[in-house]
Design a protein that fits this description.
Length: 187
């Protein structure tokens, strides 16, 4: 009796493992996911203490003078904003999610504006990190567009378009050679 029960459980486990891996394999081949972790936003914009967080972030931004560190700060803010947008949509606070998405992508625009201030071209690893982050933002925005009703999609589509433009600008900076880095302020 115990032997039959053990054999049955073993066979059940093997079958579920087999079908689970087949189903997972099909899912992975249909959609390519960007491997990048967004920073946890902490306090969301619908929290009364959010104004204090904004004040702290503005002071921090003011105190950063190194353009490379400012790029990293803006990336952190953009990551937090994109994840906060998704969390607000989960809470069905679409209007605030729209504002948050616009602000998050604006941080990516500000990030691009820091490159002309750098005396020399940053490492390619920074550009790769920024490209990956931008692609992750676009992946999240695409999923958010699918999750909201048609009449609420316009802002998220606009933010997605901004994200694509920011990525193009970033790629232009990445292609500049170190010798040409300071010749033009614009890519």
């Amino acid at each position: 009796m115990k032997r039959n029960l053990f054999a049955f459980l073993l066979m059940l486990f093997a079958i579920t493992s087999l079908f689970g891996s087949i189903a997972y394999g099909n899912e992975a081949s249909q959609t390519a996911h960007i491997q990048y972790n967004l920073a946890y936003p902490g306090i969301l914009p619908d929290n009364p203490l959010y104004k204090l967080k904004q004040l702290r972030d503005k002071i921090t931004n003011f105190l950063i003078s190194d353009p490379k560190k400012k790029v990293e700060f803006y990336l952190l803010q953009a990551d937090k904003g994109i994840l906060a947008t998704a969390m607000l949509i989960d809470k069905e606070n679409i209007a605030l999610a729209e504002q948050t998405a616009l602000k998050a992508e604006h941080n990516m625009t500000l990030l691009n504006n820091e490159f002309p201030k750098m005396p020399k071209k940053p490492d390619n690893s920074l550009f790769e990190k920024l490209k990956t982050a931008s692609l992750k933002h676009q992946e999240v925005l695409n999923s958010l567009i699918e999750r909201v009703s048609k009449d609420k999609q316009k802002t998220f589509v606009t933010v997605l378009d901004f994200s694509k433009r920011n990525l193009q600008t970033l790629e232009k900076y990445a292609k500049k050679t170190p010798l040409r880095w300071n010749m033009l302020d614009n890519p």
